[in-house]
Amino acid sequence: MNRTLPRLLMAPxxxxxxxxxxxxxxxxxxxxxxxxxxxxxxxxxxxxLANFEFFFTDPDFYASVSNTLLLLGSVIAITVVxxxxxxxxxxxxxxxxxxxxxxLISPFFVMPTANALLWKHMMMNPVYGVLSQWxxxxxxxxxxGSRPPxxxxxxxxxxxxAAVRLPDLHHQPAEPGRDxxxxxxxxxxxxxxxxxFLTLPHLGRPIAVVVMIEMIFxxxxxxxxxxxxxxxxxxxxxxxxxxxxxxxxxxxxVGVASAGALFAVVLANVAAVFLIRMIGKNLD
Length: 284
Fold this sequence. Notes:
- By secondary structure, the protein is mainly alpha-helical.
- It has 2 domains: 1-60 and 242-284, no CATH class; 70-237, MetI-like (MetI-like fold, Orthogonal Bundle), CATH 1.10.3720.
- It contains 12 helices and 2 strands; from the N terminus they run αββααααααααααα.
- α2 packs across α12, α3 (61-91) crosses α11 (240-250) and α11 (240-250) packs antiparallel against α12.
- It is globular, with a radius of gyration of 23 Å.
């Protein structure tokens, strides 16, 4: 009875979450095996793996995969470096530290579309954008020119990482940390050595968690790309999620889009396994 009652109480939530995940997955598997175009909704002939073949031979397929991987690698790298720097700065005592922490967390509450519009019009507009006012800016600048960078659709990942890591630094035991730093200083360690051998290992767990969360988010980035570049110029900023959108709502081909969605699931799992092998030891 001690085990049965908690399981019964949790069962509705577990069943709801299971159906929330399994129903779209089963529908994607079904539609990926039939010819289903929204312009001809009555035709649903079984065609096997033809939708996958069509998706993999799409001219934008390899560009979308490379852009997705580039987005993952570059943003996660920037996130880790900038996040650690901000976390270390905010961890030091200074007037107004509480307000700064709130400001660092605030980007979480900005909708992706609103954030993309701000970057598109206030920062990167070639005429009146902030970046266009730099002396080095020109009409051909990769920041403000007519050719936006291929991966400019990410939100401020560094601020997000800083916000996630701050609690870990803030709750670090004060006395052992001070003793370790003082002992390292007495042994002749410089500030970089203190950071590399004492502070950075302490941040292993939050770094691992943040990298996993960022990877999940970046695999499904869509609103920023749709709002800022619409996948262009050409396919320069098209990722897998945007390519699936193009197949589903621009080409009206639900079957090919479902095949692409299943490929995205496989790609996400491969990336997750790769990252878990790299950073999983920090989660023990």
